[in-house]
Amino acid sequence: MSHPTPLRRAPVQRRSAERLTRILDACADLLDEVGYDALTTRAVAERAGVPIGSVYRFFGNKRAMADALAQRNLDRYTERVAERLKKAKKERETGKAGSGGWRAAMDAVLDEYLAMKRTAPGFSLVDFGNQIPVGARYAEPNHRVADRLTDLLSGYLRRPPDDDLRRTFLIAVETADTLVQLAFRVDAQGDERIIEEMRRMLRAYLARVLD
To answer: Lowest CB count within 10 Å: 8, 57, 69, 156, which one?
Structure first.
């Protein structure tokens, strides 16, 4: 599913792409330091070491910056999961015990999300687009995540990316999203007992569909 870019203008030259990267990195750092309400385009420009005009070249306002950061988070998350799946596929092809299958895929999906939740600057606020305004939860980002995962996992699982599979992953994403938010409200690093219960629930649900 396509998603409109929050960029006013896409970078063409390498120097412009590097400047955009610095702007988004600065936005992410400042979100952790001051929060969304206190974030300003001028502060981002100063932190990134670019003229304020460079920020407005790409973004009309700070919400567009946050949206672009969320989109970058989703792109990086997809890349990380794809790399894990590539490794699991190689292990499966070489006959390594306990490798491959949808359970390995589910672990990759959850583990990489939790890793970003714990370490990626600004992620706790913008996530994949769910969190701005702070605390808000919208359906659209979870649909985008589910669609990405369906397209990514269907080949690995050797299943057609049909409506049934998309619905299955959407339910799994919505369930995981709710329980991950709970785990991180209970503990800043994510309550492991809640996370483990979430894994059990998802395995039980997915087993009915994918086994």
So the answer is: 8
Give the Cβ contact number of residue 115 at 10 Å.
13
Task: Look up tokens 């994918």; give the residue.
Answer: 210
* Residue ranges in 39-100 assigned as alpha helix (H): 41-48, 52-58, 62-93
Tell me how crowded residue 58 is: count the other CB atoms within 10 A of its CB. 21
Query: pLDDT tens-digit profile of 6-45?
Result: 787 777 788 889 999 999 999 999 999 999 999 999 999 9
Tokens 């709970």, residue located: 182
Alpha-carbon separation of residue 189 from 95, 113, 186, 194, 195 (angstroms): 35, 13, 9, 12, 11
Task: Please name which of 198, 204, 175 lies closest in space to residue 102, comparing C-alpha atoms.
Answer: 204
